[in-house]
């Protein structure tokens, strides 16, 4: 008995794989400093937990909901988007899924035919390319550089465009770089996409995690024409520290929602009802806790960044948002005698007991991603052990 070629060629998510390796070492009694996983280290706020408990107690979470989400949750999404973006959507322009990751998966299954191309600027979140391929699409990578703040230009996109180009993915703030597109850059990209009838998939999952006076601009706020061409993907996982609740959503044209609903109805059905009620509270309740968590991340970034800059051989740009540092360690690899970044990452975990994610998972060959979504003691100790590891490997 065999397996499908599609699944056999599929790679496991590198971030989850790194976290699993770290956990396996921990289970053996090793003290691992885990900077690999992309989730806040805060508990879900009490008000959100209490809303879920209330939904359980009154029986509201006991039954199926519409496949694309509760009407009350869709309204909360519309209201939150209007307040944050200054843009209004209707109920038939929203769908909810079991996490933003599955929302993206469902979108690719809906939008792509075999051979359709999706432009993905590198470095990119690890699952974009795999999800495109699972939908029989073709990922087309456009390399960005640290010198241009890891942001793609219209000229670069135009060089990559073909008659098969169906969509482009924009992730701002970016996982893994933390870079944010300016309003001017987004307007140029949006107008280019609209003029070529190319969907913009705007992954806004880190939109609230912006630091040091930098500004997030929603591409859909720039013009009605761009809004019509854009699919906004978001969720509650990062902003409200609800990664385990698995609620993501998208805002887009009604005809896309109606087609995605078929995928939802034949796959997951509705997202967990109790999680939907929790998400209603997250989006419609007090947003004070969001700012508290954002300030904590900003403080950590400002405290740890100068220390990271001192790691031998490292080049790194200070992130504008999200909660990752993307380190160019090409010189570090050379001084340690490595010609492969993944081998360096594996040895760092096995020998120095620090878990980071290889840049190869994000489409670059000499970077690593380090999460600062953990306490400062862990961060500073991890940097100390990384420095010691590098010293021990110098040639």
Automatic annotation (TrEMBL):
Gene3D superfamilies noted in UniProt: Aspartate Aminotransferase, domain 1, Type I PLP-dependent aspartate aminotransferase-like (Major domain)
Record has Ribosomal protein as a keyword: no
Cofactor: pyridoxal 5'-phosphate
Residues of the Aminotransferase class I/classII large domain: 31-386
InterPro entries (alphabetical): Aminotransferase_I/II_large, AspAT/PAT-like, NHTrfase_class1_PyrdxlP-BS, PyrdxlP-dep_Trfase, PyrdxlP-dep_Trfase_major, PyrdxlP-dep_Trfase_small
GO terms for MF: pyridoxal phosphate binding; transaminase activity
Family note: Belongs to the class-I pyridoxal-phosphate-dependent aminotransferase family.
Annotated protein name in UniProt: Aminotransferase
Organism per entry: Vagococcus teuberi
């Amino acid at each position: 008995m065999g397996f499908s070629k599609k699944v056999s060629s599929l790679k496991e998510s590198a971030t989850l794989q790194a976290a699993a390796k770290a956990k396996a070492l921990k289970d053996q009694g090793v003290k691992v400093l885990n900077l690999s996983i992309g989730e806040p280290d805060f508990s879900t706020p009490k008000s959100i937990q209490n809303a879920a408990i209330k939904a359980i107690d009154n029986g509201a979470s006991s039954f199926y909901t519409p496949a694309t989400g509760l009407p009350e949750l869709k309204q909360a999404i519309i209201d939150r988007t209007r307040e944050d973006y200054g843009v209004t959507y209707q109920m038939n322009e929203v769908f909810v899924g079991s996490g933003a990751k599955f929302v993206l998966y469902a979108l690719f299954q809906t939008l792509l035919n075999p051979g359709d191309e999706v432009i993905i600027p590198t470095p990119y979140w690890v699952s974009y390319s795999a999800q495109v391929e699972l939908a029989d699409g073709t990922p087309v990578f456009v390399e960005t550089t640290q010198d241009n703040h890891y942001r793609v230009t219209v000229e670069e996109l135009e060089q990559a465009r073909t008659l098969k180009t169906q969509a482009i993915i924009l992730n701002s703030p970016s996982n893994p770089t933390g870079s944010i597109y300016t309003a001017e850059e987004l307007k140029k990209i949006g107008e280019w996409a609209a003029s070529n009838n190319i969907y913009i998939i705007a992954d806004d999952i880190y939109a609230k995690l912006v630091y040091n006076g930098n500004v997030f601009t929603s591409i859909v706020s720039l013009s009605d024409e761009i809004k019509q061409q854009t699919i906004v993907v978001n969720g509650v996982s990062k902003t409200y520290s609800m990664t385990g609740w698995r609620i993501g959503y998208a805002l887009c044209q009604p005809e896309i929602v109606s087609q995605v609903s078929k995928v939802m109805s034949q796959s997951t059905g509705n997202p967990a009802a109790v999680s939907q009620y929790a998400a209603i509270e997250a989006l419609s309740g007090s947003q004070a806790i969001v700012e508290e968590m954002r300030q904590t991340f900003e403080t950590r970034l400002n405290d740890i960044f100068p220390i990271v800059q001192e790691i031998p051989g490292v080049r790194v740009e200070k992130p504008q948002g999200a909660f990752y540092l993307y380190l160019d360690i090409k010189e570090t690899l050379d001084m340690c005698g490595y010609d492969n970044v993944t081998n360096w990452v594996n040895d760092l975990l096995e020998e120095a007991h620090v878990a980071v994610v290889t840049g190869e998972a994000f489409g670059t060959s000499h970077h690593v991603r380090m999460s600062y979504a953990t306490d400062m003691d862990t961060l500073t100790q991890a940097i100390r052990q990384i420095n010691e590891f590098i010293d021990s490997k110098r040639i």
